[in-house]
Amino acid sequence: MEEKIYMTVNTLLKDRELNELYAYLLPYYKAGLDGVIVQDIGAVKFIGEYFPEMPVHASTQMTITNTLGADFLKRYGITRVVPARELSLKEIRDMKKQTGLEMECFCTRSPFCYCYSGQCLLSSMIGGRSGNRGQCAQTMSSALSDRRKETGGSYESERLFAQLTFYRN
């Protein structure tokens, strides 16, 4: 099996940060980086302009939930989509069939993160740091860790606690 190395640029970039992206990626590109996984559409366009040979994959944090979204990204040179985690296998198959794009999926068992495909607001509201900027405050993990210490809770009780906590707050 051939090994490949992909770098995640999985954060929302501000204009001044886009200017730093070239210097950040260049040494990895020269060393043979196989591609980047990107959240920010501006970064997708930037990478396409300055590193036209580098494959760019759409991160699950782009929250691609339908064929129109995947097709739109295809126009910007996206070669693979990591669709929203909330989609069914049938929806993902249909998206692949209709767009011809590669699809990559991952599953997470974690009951700790209550966001929609990485679009987190809770971390910044409660923890003062944004998961969308690479600084998740682990708000749910902290609450669940405290709860586990109190009750010796199981996975199911933690998941239920996380849901109740999130919906109450």
Structure explained in plain terms:
By secondary structure, the chain is an alpha/beta fold. It contains seven helices and five strands, in the order βαβαβαβαβααα. A five-stranded parallel sheet has the order 1-2-3-4-5, with helices on one face. α3 runs parallel beside α4 (89-99) and α6 packs across α7 (155-168).
Features of this protein?
169 residues; alpha/beta
How is this fold's topology laid out?
Blueprint: E1 6-9, H1 15-30, E2 35-38, H2 41-50, E3 56-58, H3 67-74, E4 78-81, H4 89-99, E5 102-103, H5 122-127, H6 139-151, H7 155-168
Parallel strand pairs: 1-2, 2-3, 3-4, 4-5
Helix-strand topology string: EHEHEHEHEHHH
Shape: globular
Rounded radius of gyration (Å): 18 Å
Query: What is the spatial order of strands in the main beta sheet?
Result: 1-2-3-4-5
N- to C-terminal distance: 47 Å
**β-strand amount:** 5-15%
Poorly predicted runs of 5 or more residues? 155-169
Oligomer: single chain
Q: Which structural class is indicated by helix and strand composition?
A: alpha/beta
**How many DSSP H or I helices?**
7
Largest sheet: 5 strands, parallel
Would you report the number of β strands? 5
Range of helix content = 40-55%
Outline of this structure?
The protein is α/β, with parallel strands linked by helices and 169 residues long. It has helices at 15-30, 41-50, 67-74, 89-99, 122-127, 139-151, 155-168, and strands at 6-9, 35-38, 56-58, 78-81, 102-103.
